[in-house]
Design goal:
The chain has about 100 residues and is mainly beta. It is about 15% helix and about 60% strand. It has one helix and seven strands; from the N terminus they run H-E-E-E-E-E-E-E. It has one helix spanning about 1-15, and strands at about 20-25, 30-35, 40-50, 55-70, 70-85, 90-95, 105. The strands form two sheets. The chain has a four-stranded antiparallel beta sheet, covered by helices on one side. A three-stranded antiparallel beta sheet has the order 1-2-7, with no helix packed on it. A hairpin with a 4-residue loop joins strand 5 (about 70-85) and strand 6. The radius of gyration is 14 Å and the shape is globular.
C-alpha cells in the first residue's frame, strides 16, 4: 500500500511543481510563493477517514524531509484530502520556514 501513498504525494508535488502558492505562517506572515526542493521525500505518518452526513473524506498526512550535508532534515508536513472516489479536495501545508533549503518570496 505504501506505493499508492507514495504515488499520490509524488503526483501532488509534481502537479504543483514543488511550489506552494499563497502560504501564511504561524505569525500571519504571507509568502507569495515557496519553492520546495526537488529531492524532497515524503513519508506517510497518519491517515484517517471522516464521515459527515453524505460527505466522506480521506486524510493523508505526510512528513516532508530533505537530505542535507548534516543528514536528513524534517521540513514540515503536508495533509492531502480526498473524497470517497479519491478525487483531490484540498491540501494543508505546515512548513518550517527556518530551514535553510527553502526558497521563498
Amino acid at each position: 500500500m505504501n506505493e499508492v501513498w507514495d504515488a499520490l504525494v509524488r503526483e501532488h508535488l509534481e502537479s504543483c511543481e514543488y511550489k506552494i502558492a499563497g502560504y501564511w505562517d504561524e505569525s500571519d506572515r504571507y509568502y507569495a510563493e515557496i519553492a520546495l526542493p526537488r529531492r524532497l521525500s515524503a513519508e506517510l505518518i497518519n491517515c484517517a477517514i471522516a464521515v459527515c452526513g453524505d460527505k466522506h473524506r480521506i486524510y493523508l498526512q505526510f512528513v516532508l524531509k530533505s537530505a542535507t550535508p548534516k543528514g536528513v532534515t524534517t521540513n514540515g508536513t503536508l495533509m492531502l484530502i480526498y473524497d470517497k472516489n479519491m478525487e483531490f479536495v484540498d491540501e494543508n501545508w505546515q512548513i518550517d520556514l527556518n530551514s535553510l533549503w527553502m526558497g521563498n518570496s
